[in-house]
């Protein structure tokens, strides 16, 4: 249990039950607020102490050269790193000249709560200053899901034991000093003072700062405005606002609003701070200034209460269709709602920008987006919040020019999407685990296919969707080759498992490429006119179909399992017994050379294929393959547990599935990989839903339709989840005595429950018996690499 | 023909027949002098114009960090680069205040000759200054093979058409300005002003400079002394030396000796300059100063004539045993002697330092040594100049502590020698083509085995030789694994072909490792007491033998050829037809990703196995394999042509073998890879001997003994070569009418001629009929990648 005990269980909030300075880096990520456009880490209002200050704008990055001691053709030369932009979070407090700082004086109580329905972070502190004055401080922070440019903070101070001279300094600060980067290659590069001032301006209670990012040339603007109130005991009643002195000033990198006055006990100073953020690669300085000032004026005009009401409405609507209800497990109930809240935060207003691996909650992985977005985050959002999915896929589409150029540079047709990027250009400096991981292209296609299958969005199918499918199909066709025996082989690529690289016929890659080419051919056939615009002749689509039909899937007859890739099962076994627990993650303790050539799996790869192309394997094969790969899979990646949960559930290892679900769901709340401080693991958060819905719900959604094979973890009495299917909604309510499918929508819906095909009519529900799979003994995991929750069985008992 | 026409054919010299400034970078490498300890590029005496100034001391290097945009465990962090040390070559001339510079005035004649028997570079120039005075300038430069620290220049100026005021400035200069490095990843990094002055001192005609290399901390010392003469028409007769004014001065980075006077026609000013170089990682400043001053005094005392006589004697002795005589091909005759001269220069006084890939003739590859040393250079020297071989192997032995540490870091037993290094530490920053190329360890073992087989050096067998064999055998045993079927497999390594990487069961690697383990076990069995000191128990040696016996050698039954490594022959073919000539070398135009996953071979790999482990393949297999790999092999490496020559000759493609021989032999003289300016390709130079002796001589030397199957290229009437075999010498004289084996030595020698086993008695000779293999059609090469000489058939006709 790494820190979990600092949160209480609550179905609709994440309440911190004790305050530890050492946990700040971790809680800053958990309490991060975002709308997909703006991201604020959950820093204390007063700015320090802190782990990592972080204010991010989706897409705002700095460039830096990528160095190579030995250069190579086609190596990307320019890196991109998310940067900390102008910070509008800070409100410093002085009580009788003593700065409020949790490290000094006495912290009588300190409570923070992330409210998953209100969409705000609340804080309630009672603090006695070093000179003995006790005050209550309450703050509420939100980033608006409805007003994309707007964040706001309400900050209240009430002296409890006598009059106090209260000063508040609300800041807007650029080029904050940041902690030094650490050596873990996964942590982000940080760049010093990237913002060059263009303008600073003050109004009555407003300050605007505009900067240009030094090398990338992006222009970022931030503005803040304030409402100041002095409240009497009965909240909301005016009590001489003139008693407070308000001043503003600005410098190139700093804007301040200073509020001061003497406050009596049972009076409350309330500062409401509105902050607007904006950026552009092309708009002028005056345009950017106007943009943030106007957004600010609109928010200020609507006021705090309206902002909060809109936020709650927006989330209410989200929860009404997306909520997952669990009975019998308060901890997982809380975790999955936290996960869905963070997913919606990361994506809702991203609007044709990437959804980075860590959302806008930290600078881990340099703020890059990977395949995580399409394969994990969008997989979930497609069923619960499809609109941002269309936006995210349109973002990918907008990067096609870069991806086409990259493909051409690599000597390939179609497009080659980057392994890691902010803008669409490849930023991976280690090609065996970057460029070679071509599966990202099939993963994007898979997200397109899923989106089309679920939403039936015809406009997208004609347009961006088809182009994405066509260009990725072209890539695969040029990447593989038909051999003399008539097998289509894809050689020299890297699959999801990053402990193997540059392999032939990675099964996951081959099967995903197969689907990619098949569906591309199908979509082209359905929309021939639009296909013609993309220059797709019938012969080209036929060639994709042929390649897909001939796709080579290696099989190890000797061991009767699927090798992850050609020859994998002939490799030497990793010496798991000789690997001490502190040597994980292995990539920090062993050279790639050793990892690549031995049987050790970083993350689900063949097992991910069993999930994503479920229909291509028999249950028997899945059982044998799962049993083979479990003892090899060390889960040094957060992109693994959920897939292992899904297949464990399917092959009758329910308890193991539960443990993997718990690991995925509690990855960040429990800081299981000890790096949540760099930002949340969005894919793992998405994985908790996948483990629940595809794992315990047994949902599969293929060309053949939608099916469920529900089961309940031991001790649970209910699992209920909702899906958005085009205009319709389906709620699946799994209870010990049966599974109820409740459907609303326009036309009938075909759904399979186990072997039973149901025809659901709109407005009706149907109940089927719960028939969980026969349970069998779970295969072992490498020593010490059992699902993280296993170690905490004692804790589980109390749930 | 790239510049070859600037040399005349001559059996014992390399005479430049025209002077082109653009060719300076090329000729500086060809005319480089070295003794293995000191290396001087063939810069013009007056220092400029130049391509690349270069004065090198074997082992003297600077350190620099190796940058990685994405770090990884076990990546080397510190790079080593050879540096340009204090330059003592320069003698500037002023004629009536006009500086002699080939770019100004009129160059009436300019001739340079590298004399392969005298071991000197001679220059003879007639120049008319811009003001109209004509002078003859003659210089002779040598680096002593007998006095390791000493180089010398004799410089003579004679006015031809009237009296001239002659000034000579002899320099010793540190931190010369160097040209900017270019972008080719193979070219060396250059480091600015690496030398920090410790001392500069002047004597009567002597100057000493001592410096420390900034980061590596090595101390380098250089001193020069001079003899000045004014000769009358009859050379050697004094004519008033007092007429010349001689001054010396020094600064931290510069020492000068200025000689001036008025010289009459038919008088000659002669400046003889002796230069001593030394370096140390540990010795003090006074010790280093004394070291060079003392060496200088000794050379000065002996004088120029003695130095030249020693040099000629030393080379005379060398040629008496090592010469290769060819009748019917003046060009190859010259080229092979040039090659052997450069080999002996590179190695003779290296004395427990590395022999870099480019010797001391340029800064290409940062001055690093690779497997080239053992596999090519030492392969040849073992048979013609074995003493430097023992030294070179002792150098490897001296790096065992680093190699053991590296093995441990990689999780392996024994030692892991570096892919590229100056001091013994791994400097390769791209592990798939560096660290993973473990074959370097078997190549070192192979050189040990060959040295022991040829010399019978018992002391070395007991000592360094055994330890090298044992530690490399330990590496292989830990690197491979015995699979369930009882095959010993070596996975995830890179073979010689750098257009494949991280492959399983590279046949070359597996066969070389097999030999390594077998011979290690054998040597251990022969010297049990010495083996015990290395902690080798009988079981350990038995385990090596078992692994060697079980070594897995993949075979492609479908195509009936050996795959270079597992699955290689299943890969897609490279699109040779679609690859234009200007896209070679491919690594500068295509990503590794594409190269690795397709059937395209940079350099002999499986074909090298056919040569190095000849006895493991039938002639039939060799033919099929050669036919398969020829159309795939693009020879983007200079380490390929000689092996292709050897196998081409064996399988009955004599004309093709001849063309590969010519490519290897003329690699540098013709500048075939257009990078001779970075330094000579020592391995290719060695390859010319290999192509002649192992190719046309058909020499194989295995555990089973020494054998020959001679043949002559079309048009040749004779090929005669000598071998040093322990105390004995063998000369093999191949003529059209028979092959004569002439043996001198102590005991009888068993030699196989084709299928005939001969017992040669000392002092006798035996003649056998010449029975060349049946000729068959040669397989094709990739379009445009035929042996370089093929394009020049017209020229060949005239030979």
From TrEMBL, chains A, B:
GO biological process, one term: carbohydrate metabolic process
Annotated binding of substrate, by residue: 371-372, 602-603
Hydrolase found in the keyword field: yes
Biased composition (Pro residues): 770-782
Catalytic residues, chain numbering: 498
Domain Glycoside hydrolase family 65 central catalytic: 337-689
Keywords of the record: Glycosidase, Hydrolase
Region called Disordered, residue ranges: 760-799
Biased amino acid composition, Basic and acidic residues: 790-799
Protein's UniProt keywords contain Hydrolase: yes
Residue ranges annotated for the Glycoside hydrolase family 65 C-terminal domain, each copy included: 699-758
Domain Glycoside hydrolase family 65 N-terminal: 16-280
One Gene Ontology term of the molecular function aspect: carbohydrate binding
UniProt cross-references to Pfam families, sorted A to Z: Glyco_hydro_65C, Glyco_hydro_65m, Glyco_hydro_65N
Family note: Belongs to the glycosyl hydrolase 65 family.
Protein name: Glycoside hydrolase family 65 protein
Organism, scientific name: Actinospica acidithermotolerans
